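Sample intake sheet
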Amino acid sequence: MRAFAAVAEHLHFRDAASAIGMSQPALSGAVSALEEVLDVQLLERTTRKVLLSPAGERLAARARTVLDAVGELLEEADAARAPFTGVLRLGVIPTVAPYLLPTVLRLVHDAYPALDLQVHEEQTSSLLDGLAQGRLDLLLLAVPLGAPGVTELPLFDEDFVLVTPSDHWLAGRGDIPRAALRELDLLLLDEGHCLRDQALDICREAGRTTGMPVTTSAAGLSTLVQLVGGGMGVTLLPRTALRVETDRSEALATGYFADPAPSRRVALAMRAGAARQEEFEQFAEALRAAMRSLPVRILRG
């Protein structure tokens, strides 16, 4: 087809062969083979010139369209083989998105300008459904997930801190024992947030009984912190959220737990055996390097 399109453009075998880098006999043979496959005469050959047959006139334009489409297909395949190009649909949980996305977006902008990053903020269960169904490619969330068919790429561990009213008896302390959580008026996120479950696990480990009241008052960390500032209780925040959520109010104070402080692990998650696994592993390593300035403990890949 390339040979025929060249002859149709130049109407000269030698010029057509030179244009596409073929020998003249090979080009003539290729056109003859196409005529045989299509069972139609495309050219009228004379000793002095080459003419398109009526069928050749009709098919020449179609041949160029087909060749252009094949070229685009090959270009798309090349792009698909190239790492960090095309679309990457990243799912992020709400208790990570506001605090880590600036680092993620800066990395993508600086290191992967050909990557079309699309961000979806959802709760963990919805993200896992999206990953399983192919709606999402990669997740950024707290682990472990315990989900079959999902591979986790750990990024870092980060401590939880206690956010209190500024006049609270634990305000500003750097050696808070976990046992203090047994008696505090604790404010937590709504059902469905993994951070709520993690906080409750920490409280259980500290010896807080199931009968102790826990006030569920907010759908987001910003609202929780405002409630703390209003004197309604205390809450647990991951260290990466601390500056964003507490710098705005002088009514808040931060307390730090004695070692070992309660913590959470944040990771990327992908489908086991994902076609882009090597690319995602490289992305995880780049994220670890980009997050070294955050108040976290970077994990090895």
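Comment: The CA atoms of residues 153 and 284 lie 7 Å apart. The longest strand covers residues 150-165.
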